[in-house]
Design goal:
Strand content: 5-15%
Shape: globular
Number of strands: 5
CATH superfamily of the largest domain: Winged helix-like DNA-binding domain superfamily/Winged helix DNA-binding domain
Strand order of the largest sheet: 1-3-2
Helix content: 40-55%
Length: about 140
């Protein structure tokens, strides 16, 4: 269940469809990326910061706070080390996040995009593999 605060659903608000509500709650790309990085593990602030190098400290701090207040993250203090992990609410998004990841991987690979790997901090970047059997999503000509 969503908590009150940033990311909460205003009671009685009318949405065009459930996808609009979902996107409104996740609010932009950074929250989704943070959720994807925390999938399956706890991370300290510094680990998250290194895992998402294009995200500024200020924005990361804001998004973590909003997501904690909204019920998506659990912030824990163990012996002075602050860690973040997904709440059960956020864990329920795992299949949707995996679908987005898989779709982006296929489309990016077909387009020749490159993706950071876990060892990206060492300067290694994953080059696209040959994916001849995968088909891109057709684009509208309009």
């Amino acid at each position: 269940m969503l908590k009150d605060g940033p990311g909460a659903i205003p009671r009685g608000r009318l949405f065009g469809c459930p996808a609009e509500l979902s996107l409104d709650l996740l609010g932009g790309k950074w929250k989704t990326i943070i959720l994807a990085r925390l999938k399956g593990e706890r991370m300290r602030y510094g680990e998250l910061r290194r895992a998402i190098p294009d995200l500024t400290d200020k924005v990361l701090t804001q998004r973590l706070r909003e997501m904690e207040q909204g019920g998506f993250l659990i912030r824990e203090d163990a012996d002075g080390a602050i860690t973040y992990r997904l709440s059960p609410l956020a864990q329920s998004l795992t299949p949707a996040l995996q679908t987005l990841y898989d779709w982006g991987e296929v489309q990016g690979t077909l387009a020749g995009a490159r993706f950071h790997t876990e060892s990206a901090a060492l300067g290694e970047i994953l080059a696209p593999a040959d994916q001849a059997d995968r088909q891109p999503v057709p684009q509208d000509a309009g």
